Amino acid sequence: MHLKSLSLVNYKSFDSADFEMDEKINCFVGNNGVGKTNVLDAIYHLAFAKSYFNPITIQNIKHETDFFVINGKFEKDDREENVVISAKRGNKRIAKRNGKVYEKISDHIGLLPLVIISPADRDLIIEGSETRRKFLDGVLSLDNQKYLERLINYNKLLSQRNALLKYFAANRKFDSDALAVYDEQMVALGAYIHKCRVEFLERFTPIFKDFYAKISRKADEKVDIYYKSDFLDADPATVFKDAQQKDLQIQYSTVGIHKDDLLFSLDGYPVKKYGSQGQQKSFLTALKLAQFEFIKSESGTVPILLLDDIFDKLDESRVSQLIEMVNDEQFGQLFISDTNSERTEAVIKNVNQSYKMFEL
Ligand SMILES: Nc1ncnc2c1ncn2[C@@H]1O[C@H](COP(=O)(O)OP(=O)(O)OP(=O)(O)O)[C@@H](O)[C@H]1O
């Protein structure tokens, strides 16, 4: 699968722009703020119907204009796929595939597998557990519609249960039957989601460790991902029951898969606190490449890879290492952004692949 052409109207810093892409490597170069990341984000938008950097759709419309349109022509399985994502102020965003509007935008997710590696990924290490759950859910739901549906249902029930807990407190009453209705459903859905997450991490973690060893070139550094969950080695129904008093007290559901987290460790210590900047960058890159590998094996399609500001993340030798890995037949189309065109071209020239440089 690859992107053949991209055209933008009023997308972020662009009035209008058209790009004919190379089938293999595309580099966007230019000074800070010229819109390199915006091009990559537009490609991300085509795959996920939202921005990687700014999830508030209307904020991606160019200032002083009313709408944006992103139009991408892809080739997938010898067929052309034309995807258009557009948004207008005051209206819902629209996703179209080959001229047909999606009724549910979530149906589009998974058609165009794509992975982005960006400096913004550091949120995965430094931010709260929600970013890590999103990462987990993002990979898991790409090829598992059932997982996504159950997760959406669980989250709906969670906000209803929280509202009920608040209602009890405000009205000084308690109805155990009403609470049990939620608990029963959330326990069943949560147990399924938990099982999927356990199985996923069992497969994902070894792939991640392999990539870390390759990128860091340090076989003696031991990285790991631990799954932290209330349901780990416990009966979900009992976990819910045991937490009931506390839930009533603080008017919030204190246990469940919405509290899950991933603990990232390096030589037994948290990467967030003890990893050097370089180690953190390698850790994140390995996470994303493992995501790439996982999606590829699950979907049977080689994802598009976006490397945003790669030199910000890794030194030159690690970038070369990365590009060499990407050069391998296992990788498909690649998009790179960097401020320094000579530096990028020097690295790209070393791999025997076709490429195109776009000076912005
Ligand atoms: N909705 C918008 N309307 C107009 N301009 C916008 C909008 N959103 C972002 N921009 C502009 O896009 C520019 C940033 O573009 P981008 O992040 O792609 O730069 P870049 O070339 O990747 O820069 P760097 O090298 O610093 O990473 C900024 O000047 C920002 O003001």
UniProtKB/TrEMBL annotation:
GO terms for biological process: DNA replication; DNA synthesis involved in DNA repair; double-strand break repair; SOS response. The keyword Phosphoprotein does not apply. Keywords: ATP-binding, Cytoplasm, DNA damage, DNA repair, DNA replication, DNA-binding, Nucleotide-binding, SOS response. InterPro entries: DNA-binding_RecF, DNA-binding_RecF_CS, P-loop_NTPase, RecF/RecN/SMC_N, RecF_2. The keyword Nucleotide-binding applies. ATP binds at residues 30-37. One of its GO terms (molecular function) is ATP binding. It is found in: Cytoplasm. GO terms for cellular component: cytoplasm. NCBIfam families: recf (TIGR00611). Belongs to the RecF family. The RecF protein is involved in DNA metabolism; it is required for DNA replication and normal SOS inducibility. RecF binds preferentially to single-stranded, linear DNA. It also seems to bind ATP. This is DNA replication and repair protein RecF.
